[in-house]
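Dear support,

Our group has been running a series of protein-ligand predictions, and this particular one with 1-hydroxynaphthalene-2-carboxylic acid is the one our PI (initials K.S.) wants archived with full inputs and outputs. We had some confusion internally about which version of the output was final, so please treat the block below as the authoritative record. The input we submitted was:
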Amino acid sequence: MTVAPQKDSLDQLFEEAVVEHAEPLWPLLSAVSPPFPVAKAAPYVWDYEKLRPFCERAARLVGTDLAERRVFMLINPKLKAPYTTDTLYAGLQTILPGETARAHRHSPFALRFIIEGERGFTAVEGEKVMMQRGDMVLTPSWEWHDHGNEGDRPMIWLDGLDLPLWQVLPSNFTEHYANARYPSELLNTASNRRYPWAEMQAKLDAAPGAVAEERYRMRANGGEISATIGASAFRFDKGAKSAPLRETASAVMHVYEGSGQTRVGDTVLTWKQGDTFALPAWQKIVHENTGAGRAYLFRFDDRPLMSALAALRTDAG
Ligand code: 1HN
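Confirmed final output from the archive:
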């Protein structure tokens, strides 16, 4: 029989409890349940002039036979792969003329925003859609997809996925197709999975004001492009500055054209064409076009996910 200790203490209690895999909540309560959201991700810009040569070198060093997706992940400096923000993943994918990124399907939703190249394609669930600079192409959850390049220059695009979410939801499946290509036919009419830049820019240019934001809407039903990830494009006229906004959604932005800076809390991100930057949740964000002409930016974010969880809050103050 053991003798009960003469004097008990919290330290002693914690020590004994942890052995039984029980830990006290009260010292951690404000960390697990903070008064306001604290994103783990930092604001950060990936410089395309520095990263583009890496894409070229990777394309010389490894083929799509060995690299099923030849991608440089854009990893947030405060996090590790596959986190670009707390909830979003972004990467730069390269595919050379004649190459195939073989067919597979998976639980995560993916979008592509084309940075350079033409006559690339993505075949999604049998529908082959062509891709050129500025186009956004969707690869919905669990749809077969492969990519190719029928042009004569490399294609480089930004991938956007809800991959971080699938690190916590234990329901992430991937299946490989038996052949490199899933049978597909070229679609020449408007697709629910392809959103050409020309169409988006026309909308932005027709919108009033020095700053315009247009949400990408599913052609089929006018809704967000997925249950988790949504996307917008922006026009900022020369010298224009956006109204401050703080929201619980995080975002990845990509510069289609122009240059400027984005203030994220106390951090200033400076950007130009081709650059991609991470905007963590719940920090005051102000964009400014400091360049010589108009600026156009693409953005994807987790607003649909946050809305679905009744967790989307915005603060324009
Ligand atoms: C994926 O399937 C693609 O299909 C790109 O191009 C990036 C990152 C993680 C998991 C799957 C693609 C990906 C990916």
